[in-house]
Every structure is written in structure tokens, then in C-alpha cells.
């Protein structure tokens, strides 16, 4: 991922220098476990522990010759070890993927922890915003067309619950990738004891794979990328709502526009939803990683490296972009401008057409057949669309043409926006009870 969209904490997790720090950590724990088991000399541990991780530049210089990253790392690290002979016992009994997959699992858990923290903060912000706007009337839209009255907090509550479910998915995905292996060239433990694997995984906060070949099967990593893609897409949905709400014809919502900000190089009047558009665009980058990572599950026999090159790009890009999206979406929500007056004006802009469903039900309850009631209300609605006259007027005219007189007091009672949202209390009660970041299933599988 380019620097423009990389936040420092997540960027460090996926840096080359941190990767080599983790490789050193894994190798040192294996060495210690082997020494404790009497497999290698005990005096080899301290010199290796004291050796600083090799620099990315040092490893790259050696890899230019060896064309093998793990051998290049081991050589560069051995060059930092005094006495150098102690390094002979590093990587004892291991194959490259023992190191690669186990260290990658640590990276994935570190990235997961950061994403869980950000997603929890976003959930809390969405919850707070929704509760603050539980009474902010607006028109609900289906197919982009005015439908029925609603409140803005209802729409945001949907996003809050969705992001809270995303936190739960991230936790499950973290568990799926917190798996390492130290079982040798084809996973048969031919050159390393399973007890060594168990001890090292405990030290790293991982669990040993139930079974592995030379690599851990990639279904867990695919699940992890899928969870990130859902997080990114919920951010996308939030941002899309703001983009629609900021359109000139709507003007119900607006991103924060800071002092000194410019909207267009040519048109000084412009205040564009640039943050929201950035979120929607980058969500595509995260979703795009799903298929390449899924295709890392089928490999030739016990292992090939067709997954490796893909993961070097897909996993950092997915994590870094999702981290940035969560940060951007949090800023979007905390700075969001909600125009209540404009929402009310838009609600009333169709001359009462948004009450057609309530009128239909009222006519049915008064004894009219649904077919006749629907025909009457639809004809009145179409007349309002074409003439711009208030819906109540065209309704009365259509009714009069059928020899009917509608009871105005009953229409007054049903043609109120508050009537439509009177039963939303349960939604907001559930939202008040929701603890951001908590498992929405209550721990049930």
C-alpha cells in the first residue's frame, strides 16, 4: 500500500524491519526450546539472543545472490552473532515455512488487534450519533425515491449494529489465523519434536496447527481477508449514504469542511464529499484481495509457493487499507454535519405523497377493498406527481369522482411523520444496551 494511505502503527506491523524482528523472535524461541530439551548446546542461546536483527538492506544484499529470503535472513543474522558459531544451531530442524507461516501468524494477530480497536471505536461513534438523532425526522428512500418518513438515527443504528458485528467477525478471524506450525519439511515432525512446536506457539500467543503439510492451509487467512472485506464494505455503505446526502439536490448531510480546505481548482463554490469518495474507492482495494488469497488454498501436493507472492501484496494491502478506512470513517462520523431543517423540508417536498401507505391502510380499515383503495390512492398520487398539487387535494378530487367523501380527521391522524416512527423505540433501546466491541451473539456459536 502506498504511503498516502498507510497509518504509522499498521505500517510498522507490515514493515520489513518488523518482519525480521518477528523472524528473530520465532527462531530464538525455537533455539531456547531445543536447548531446554538438550537437542542443541545451551550456550548457543545467549549469543543469538544478543544479536540484533539484520537490517532489510543486509538481507536484500545477500538475497540478491542466494535468491532465497530465509537463507539470506539467516546468513545476515549470523553475521551479527558473536561468536558466529552459535548461529549454527539457529533454524535447527526447521523448514522455511515453519518460520514464515508462524511469523506471519503473529503479524496477522497484531494487525487484527489494531483493526478490532479501530472498529470498536467506530462502533461507539456510530452508536452515539444514532442515539443523538433518534428523533431527527427525515424521509426514508427506496430505489432513491421518497418512501415513508423515518428518523436519521434509525439509518445510523443499522450501521452501528453492522460494525459491531464486524468486530465480532474480526475476533473470529483473528482466532482463525492465530495458528503456527513447526513440523518440518512436509509436516511429519521428522526433524523436530511436537513438544518444541507446542512450547514455541505458547510463547508467541499462537496455537499449533491441528495438521499441516509444509504450510498451514490458507482457509484461515482467506477467512481473515473476507472479514476485512466486510469491514471495508460497511465503511463503504456509510460513506455512500453521506455522498447521497451531500448532493446539492438533497443537502441533508455534509462532511466537515475545514478552514483552508479547497473543493475544486476551478470552482471555488465546491464542497465535495472527498473523504466519503475515498472510502468508497479504497473499499474496492480490500475486496479485490479476496480471490487472490482464496486461490492460495489449493497448492501442489505438500506445498508450492504460488500463494507466497500474492500474500506479500494482498495481506499488507488489505490490512493497511482497512485500517485507513476505519480511521477515515470514524472522522467522517464524528465530523458529520446533519441539517435537520433540510431533512424536514425534503420530507414535505412531495406534497404529502409519503403518506400514501398510511392512507391506503386507512381506506382498507374503513371498509374499502384493497384493490379499490390502491387504485384510488395511486391515481391521486400520480396526479400529484404530474400537477404538483398537494396529495390530500388530489386524493379528495379522486374520491369525489367516485362519489366518496373521506373523513378529514382520520386523514389528519394518519398523515403525520411521527406516526411512522412511533414503534422504533425498541431499536434504540437495543442500541443503548449494545456494548461496542462485545460479541452481539452473547457468546453463542
Describe the structure.
The structure is a single chain. This protein has 445 residues and is mainly α. The protein folds into 3 domains: 1-92, Fumarase/aspartase (N-terminal domain) (Fumarase C, Chain B, domain 1, Orthogonal Bundle), CATH 1.10.275; 96-197 and 205-257 and 264-350 and 421-439, Fumarase/aspartase (Central domain) (Fumarase C, Chain A, domain 2); 353-414. Helix content is 61%, strand content 5%. Strands 1-2 form a two-stranded antiparallel sheet. A two-stranded parallel sheet has the order 3-4. The longest helix is centred in the first third of the chain and has 37 residues, at 96-132. The two termini are 35 Å apart.
Please sum up the structure shown.
Helix content is 61%, strand content 5%.
Task: Summarize the topology.
Layout: H1 8-13, H2 16-36, H3 45-50, H4 56-66, H5 69-79, H6 96-132, E1 137-142, E2 145-151, H7 152-177, E3 179-180, H8 194-204, E4 207-208, H9 219-246, E5 253-254, H10 274-287, H11 290-294, H12 306-334, E6 337-338, H13 340-347, H14 356-365, H15 370-387, H16 391-401, H17 408-414, H18 417-420, H19 425-433
Parallel strand pairs: 3-4
Antiparallel strand pairs: 1-2, 5-6
Amino acid at each position: 500500500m502506498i504511503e498516502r494511505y498507510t497509518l504509522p502503527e499498521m505500517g510498522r506491523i507490515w514493515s520489513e524491519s518488523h518482519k525480521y524482528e518477528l523472524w528473530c523472535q520465532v527462531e530464538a524461541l525455537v533455539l531456547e526450546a531445543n536447548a531446554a530439551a538438550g537437542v542443541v548446546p545451551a550456550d548457543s542461546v545467549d549469543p543469538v539472543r544478543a544479536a540484533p536483527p539484520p537490517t532489510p538492506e543486509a538481507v536484500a544484499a545477500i538475497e540478491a545472490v542466494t535468491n532465497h529470503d530465509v537463507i539470506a535472513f539467516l546468513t545476515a543474522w549470523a553475521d551479527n552473532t558473536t561468536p558466529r558459531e552459535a548461529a549454527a544451531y539457529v533454524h535447527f530442524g526447521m523448514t522455511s515455512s515453519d518460520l514464515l507461516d508462524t511469523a506471519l501468524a503473529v503479524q496477522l494477530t497484531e494487525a487484527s488487534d489494531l483493526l478490532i480497536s479501530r472498529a470498536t471505536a467506530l462502533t461507539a461513534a456510530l452508536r452515539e450519533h444514532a442515539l443523538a438523532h433518534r428523533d431527527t425526522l427525515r424521509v426514508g428512500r427506496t430505489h432513491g425515491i421518497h418512501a415513508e418518513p423515518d428518523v436519521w438515527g434509525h439509518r445510523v443504528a443499522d450501521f452501528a449494529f453492522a460494525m459491531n458485528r464486524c468486530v465480532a467477525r474480526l475476533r473470529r478471524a483473528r482466532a482463525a489465523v492465530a495458528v503456527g506450525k513447526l513440523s518440518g519439511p512436509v509436516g511429519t515432525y521428522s526433524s523436530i519434536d511436537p513438544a518444541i512446536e507446542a512450547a514455541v506457539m505458547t510463547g508467541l500467543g499462537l496455537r499449533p496447527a491441528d495438521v499441516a503439510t509444509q504450510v498451514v492451509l490458507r482457509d484461515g487467512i482467506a477467512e481473515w481477508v473476507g472479514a476485512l472485506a466486510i469491514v471495508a464494505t460497511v465503511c463503504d455503505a456509510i460513506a455512500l449514504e453521506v455522498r447521497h446526502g451531500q448532493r446539492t439536490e438533497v443537502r441533508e448531510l455534509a462532511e466537515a469542511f475545514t478552514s483552508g480546505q479547497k473543493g475544486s481548482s476551478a470552482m471555488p463554490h465546491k464542497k465535495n464529499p472527498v473523504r466519503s469518495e475515498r472510502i468508497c474507492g479504497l473499499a474496492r482495494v480490500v475486496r479485490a484481495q479476496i480471490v487472490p488469497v482464496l486461490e492460495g488454498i489449493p497448492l501442489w501436493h505438500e506445498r508450492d509457493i504460488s500463494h507466497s507472492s500474492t500474500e506479500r501484496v494482498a495481506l499488507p494491502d488489505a490490512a493497511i487499507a482497512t485500517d485507513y478506512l476505519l480511521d477515515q470513517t470514524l472522522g467522517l462520523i464524528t465530523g458529520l454535519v446533519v441539517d435537520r431543517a433540510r431533512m424536514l423540508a425534503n420530507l414535505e417536498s412531495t406534497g404529502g405523497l409519503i403518506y400514501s401507505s398510511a392512507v391506503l391502510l386507512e381506506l382498507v380499515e374503513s371498509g374499502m377493498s384493497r384493490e379499490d383503495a390502491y387504485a384510488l390512492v395511486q391515481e391521486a398520487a400520480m396526479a400529484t406527481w404530474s400537477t404538483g398539487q398537494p396529495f390530500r387535494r388530489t386524493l379528495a378530487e379522486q374520491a369525489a369522482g367516485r362519489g366518496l367523501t373521506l373523513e378529514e380527521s382520520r386523514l389528519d391522524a394518519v398523515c403525520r411523520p411521527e406516526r411512522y416512527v412511533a414503534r422504533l423505540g425498541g431499536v434504540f433501546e437495543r442500541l443503548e444496551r449494545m456494548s461496542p466491541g462485545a460479541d452481539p451473539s452473547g457468546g453463542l456459536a
